[in-house]
Each structure stands twice: as structure tokens, then as C-alpha cells.
Specification:
The mean pLDDT is 92. The protein contains 17 helices and seven strands. The protein is globular. The longest helix has 35 residues. The chain is an alpha/beta fold and 496 residues long. It has two domains: 208 residues, no CATH class; 230 residues, Spore Coat Polysaccharide Biosynthesis Protein SpsA, Chain A, CATH 3.90.550.
Length: 496
């Protein structure tokens, strides 16, 4: 019975952590709904007055972006802003032939009168953070806008964001991400669904009550003074954006999230690209938990509620570990449940896992409804999207858990950039992209084994207990089987 109690204990802790996370999301939902009823009364600069227009530097950190750099530069050159108050830095760490192409594109735009510079480095020290820091030392702008290579801001983007810096305490204005290839594949649909939930529920929900949010690495604009005051960019984590965001807010800088300003971008269309992005984000989240947790808890500048949300925010990626534990232990728990009748009250309490899923379903529905409208048909579309999202996300749980554990145990790794494809429609193809990883990782083999393991879990529903079996976890095991199967098969064949 000792082994059974160990399994029960670990399983219970994992489910409790998921439930706490769900309750935090529910609190953010209340904040989100409250925020939508209020008008944004932030003070604004009078951009129409030439004397009030501040100097802006746009930073474009790129690395081997052969397929999208021309699109990026053409798009940025169309931004509406006084040319005498605008500087563009192309921070190019490329190591392939794209560096020559970028140089030619920059020289072409320079001839149009645009103040654009091609800044290169002899090494990638600090990766993206290092490039941003080096560019900042030369930047002329009072404000620093940052765009990754796959982002395509609207022409009036600067005019709609810079105005919010009238309050000298505002350090960052972050905009919502859009998705130019949302409907390209199942993978892009799931990524879009997840990002929409993050930007809607979490960014709005936290920002509405003054809790910490994060600059998302791109499609936002910083006050240069804020970056320097917070200690500048640091490359000791894989999510330098989250790191600097927390250091800035601990110094009482205010962040503004603009839900009504959407910045279109391209989602990864092959699973190897999505895996590298997910790995970096989740490992970086764990690294920042280790780096920031003591500072957050010991800070006297923030409320207890903000500290709680800050801790849970930094632990977001660690939820994948809890989900993986619940999944793996759910099969032995199925046998324990049917072996020890005296534990039935415990299993009734453990239904809080199902309650957690229902809470997340409700939270994400409100975000989806506000973007896509209500009604029965839209609800059905949402329900299918949520099931698809949850199924694929649990399939990524092993991959993301390994990233999280590396982050918590401070294992260092390089900043692996996400390949870009310049894909907008179903007619566009990713095949032939030189940046795609050709070899699946060893983790894929374990994902295949887990696929079979959860197939066994489905079989177990028919044979445990009495002759009638126990189908309480059958749908959960089916989702895990499909999720791990999807990730395994797509990773082997490298298809979108």
C-alpha cells in the first residue's frame, strides 16, 4: 500500500496545483469582464502637434531570416510617423547569406530618405537580449519599438501606441498579436486559440487590476529610460522579455496593454518550429521563476494579491508538469480506485480536476465570444476549438515539461530561434525551407510510447473493477492518446 499512497500523494498535489491555477484564471476572468465595461482613460500625447512628437527608434532583431526580411523591411518602411523623428535599427545577427540580402534592402530604403541602419555583431553574445542591448546603446529614440521578423504592424501603429506615454510612469505599451495564417492547419489553429486566450484573459485581466504583465518580446514599445532604470536587457534566461518586464514593474513602472491594437504575425506552420518556440517559452518561464520569485515575494512595492498573481504567472509553464503527472498517474489511479473501495470519498474530491477544466472552458469562452460573437453556432465552434486545443496541448506536455525542468534546474542552452516561412494562405508551402530541423528529437520516441500507454488506459476502462468496467477516465485517456499521437506522428513526418 506504500506505493499506492505515494502515487495518490503525487497525483493529489498535481491536481491541486491545476485547480489553483484554474481559480486564478477565474479571477482574471472577473477582471477581464470588469475591464471591458470601462473606457481607457489614459492620458495621451498630442501627436498632431509636431513639437510634441517624441523621437522613436524601431529595433528589428533578426537572425537568418531569408524568407521574411524583405517583407518585414517593406512593411516597416510604410509606418506613418514623421521621418525626422524616426530611426530604424536592423539588428542582424545572421550567419548565412541572408546578411547580404538584408544589407541590400537596407541600402535601398536608405535612398528613400529613411533613417535605417544595418547593425551587425561579430558574435551572438546574449542572443536577442544582447542584440537589443547593443542597439539601445546607439539608439537616438526616447521610445524603443520592437518587432520580430514575422510581425507586420499596421501603418498607424506608432501613432496609436506612442500617444499612451504622456504619463511619465508608463514604461511599456504592449499590443495584441494577430495571426495572418490562423486557418492554415490544425497546428496554427491551436496556437492562435492559445495566444488569443493569453492576450485576452491574462494580459487584460492582470493589467486591469495593476498586476504584473509581460512585454511579449515583440509588437510593443518601451520607454528607453525604463529599460535602463530596470537594469537593461539581460541574456541569462531564454525569455528576456519576461525578465525585463518583471524587473521594470518591481521598480514601479506601469505597463499598458492595448487590446484594440492588433499586430499581425505569422504562426509556425511545422511542428518542429512550434516545438522550438514552445521549448524556449516554457524553459524561459521556469528560468524566470527561479530568478524572480524571491524579488517578487520580498518586494514592498506590490500588494499581496499582485504577488500571488505574479507567482502563478511565473509558474504558468510549470502547469505542463502537473498535467503530465496527472496523465501518467491517471492509469494506476484507475486501478487503485477499483481496488480500494474505502478510497471512494477521496476520488469524489478529486473531481476538482474536471471542475478545473470546466473553469478554463468558461474563461476562454468569454474571450472567444468577445472576439467572435455569441450565439449557439459560435458556441459549438468554440467548444470544438477548445477540445482540439486541450487535446493538442496535453500532447505537448512531455516536451514542455522537459523544458520546464531544465529551466528550474538551471541547465543552460542556446536561444533557438523559431524558423519563419512567409506563409499566409493554404496555397503557400513550407517545403524547402532551409531552417527547418530535419531530425526529430529523442523526446519523440517517448511521446510515441506515451501514445501507446494511453491506448492501454482506454483498454483498462473495460477490464478494471467488476464486469461493467470503469469509464470515468476514458475520454481523458482518449484525448491523451490523440494528443500524443498527433505530436508523435507530425514530429516524425515533419508536416504541418
Amino acid at each position: 500500500m506504500i506505493v499506492e499512497y505515494v502515487i495518490i500523494s503525487i497525483y493529489s498535489i498535481a491536481i491541486l496545483l491545476i485547480f489553483i491555477y484554474a481559480l486564478a484564471q477565474l479571477n482574471l476572468l472577473f477582471n477581464y469582464l470588469s475591464a471591458r465595461k470601462k473606457k481607457n482613460n489614459s492620458e495621451k500625447l498630442d501627436i498632431s502637434n509636431p513639437d510634441k512628437v517624441p523621437y522613436v527608434t524601431i529595433q528589428l532583431p533578426i537572425y537568418n531570416e531569408m524568407y521574411v526580411v524583405e517583407r518585414l523591411l517593406n512593411n516597416i518602411s510604410l509606418l506613418e510617423y514623421p521621418k525626422d523623428k524616426l530611426e530604424i535599427q536592423v539588428l542582424d545577427d545572421s550567419t548565412d547569406e541572408s546578411i547580404k540580402t538584408t544589407k541590400n534592402q537596407v541600402e535601398r530604403l536608405q535612398k528613400t530618405g529613411l533613417d535605417i541602419k544595418h547593425i551587425t555583431r561579430t558574435n551572438r553574445s546574449g542572443f536577442k537580449a544582447g542584440a537589443l542591448k547593443e542597439g539601445l546603446a546607439k539608439a537616438k529614440g526616447e521610445f524603443i519599438a520592437i518587432f520580430d521578423a514575422d510581425f507586420l504592424p499596421q501603418k498607424d501603429w506608432l501613432l496609436r501606441t506612442v500617444a499612451y506615454f504622456k504619463n511619465p510612469e508608463v514604461g511599456v505599451v504592449q499590443t495584441k498579436w494577430g495571426h495572418i495564417n490562423r486557418n492554415y492547419s490544425t497546428l496554427t489553429k491551436v496556437q492562435a486559440f492559445a495566444l488569443d486566450a493569453h492576450f485576452g484573459l491574462e494580459q487584460v485581466g492582470r493589467n486591469a487590476k495593476g498586476h504584473f504583465i509581460n512585454f511579449n518580446g515583440t509588437a510593443g514599445i518601451w520607454r528607453k529610460e525604463c529599460i535602463i532604470d530596470a537594469g537593461n536587457w539581460e541574456g541569462d534566461t531564454l525569455t528576456e522579455d519576461l525578465d525585463l518586464s518583471y524587473r521594470a514593474q518591481l521598480k514601479k513602472w506601469k505597463f499598458i496593454y492595448l487590446e484594440n491594437v492588433e499586430t499581425p504575425a505569422e504562426l509556425p506552420v511545422v511542428i518542429s518550429a512550434a516545438r522550438s518556440q514552445q521549448f524556449r517559452w516554457n524553459k524561459g518561464g521556469a528560468e524566470n521563476f527561479q530568478k524572480m520569485i524571491k524579488r517578487v515575494l520580498s518586494s514592498r512595492n506590490i500588494s499581496t494579491k499582485t504577488k500571488i498573481h505574479g507567482v502563478l504567472h511565473l509558474l504558468n509553464s510549470t502547469m505542463f508538469l502537473s498535467v503530465l503527472i496527472v496523465g501518467i498517474l491517471s492509469i494506476p489511479m484507475l486501478y487503485i480506485k477499483n481496488e480500494y473501495n474505502n478510497l471512494q470519498p477521496y476520488f469524489i474530491v478529486m473531481n476538482i480536476f474536471g471542475i478545473s477544466i470546466i473553469i478554463l472552458f468558461i474563461c476562454y469562452w468569454f474571450v472567444y465570444r468577445n472576439s467572435n460573437g455569441g450565439g449557439f453556432l459560435n458556441f459549438l465552434k468554440y467548444a470544438s476549438s477548445f477540445i482540439l486545443f486541450f487535446t493538442i496541448v496535453v500532447g505537448f506536455s512531455l516536451h514542455n515539461t522537459i523544458a520546464v525542468l531544465e529551466g528550474h534546474f538551471r541547465k543552460k542552452s542556446e536561444f533557438i530561434r523559431t524558423p519563419k516561412f512567409n506563409i499566409k494562405t493554404l496555397k503557400d508551402s513550407w517545403k524547402g525551407n532551409k531552417y527547418i530541423s530535419k531530425k526529430p528529437s529523442l523526446h519523440v520516441i517517448i511521446e510515441g510510447i506515451l501514445m501507446l500507454y494511453f491506448l492501454y488506459g482506454m483498454y483498462s476502462a473495460f477490464v478494471v473493477g467488476n464486469n461493467n468496467g470503469d469509464f470515468g477516465l476514458f475520454l481523458f485517456h482518449l484525448m491523451l492518446f490523440i494528443g500524443f499521437g498527433y505530436v508523435f506522428v507530425k514530429s516524425i513526418f515533419s508536416k504541418a
